[in-house]
Design brief:
There is one protein chain. The protein is an all-alpha fold and 91 residues long. The chain has one domain. Helix content is 67%, strand content 0%. The chain contains 5 helices and no strands. It starts with a helix and ends in a 14-residue tail after the last helix.
């Protein structure tokens, strides 16, 4: 837990990110060994988990135009431009 705590201290608004990383860690974990540092590091820590999620979402946007339009509308209503960017799915 200290590794997760150290990474979280460096990240503003970390609680939802920690929650997501722990969920991925749990789903990837070994039923015999439980949650391990080795699995956490394999996932790339908090940052790696979020990067993987962003890539999965970006792929989904390419595959499903209706999903992409719904995300665009949501982002626009939340105050963003709704346009896809090079570094993030949405600006």
């Amino acid at each position: 837990m200290s590794t997760i705590e150290e990474q979280a201290r460096k990240t503003e608004g970390a609680l939802p990110l920690i929650t997501y990383a722990l969920e991925r860690l749990y789903n990837q974990g070994d039923t015999q060994q439980g949650l391990t540092l080795q699995t956490y590091e394999k996932l790339g820590g908090i940052r790696g988990c979020i990067e993987t999620l962003a890539k999965e979402m970006d792929e989904q946007l390419d595959l499903d135009p209706a999903y992409a339009k719904a995300c665009e509308t949501f982002i626009q209503r939340a105050g963003g431009s709704g346009k896809r960017c090079r570094h993030t799915p949405w600006c």
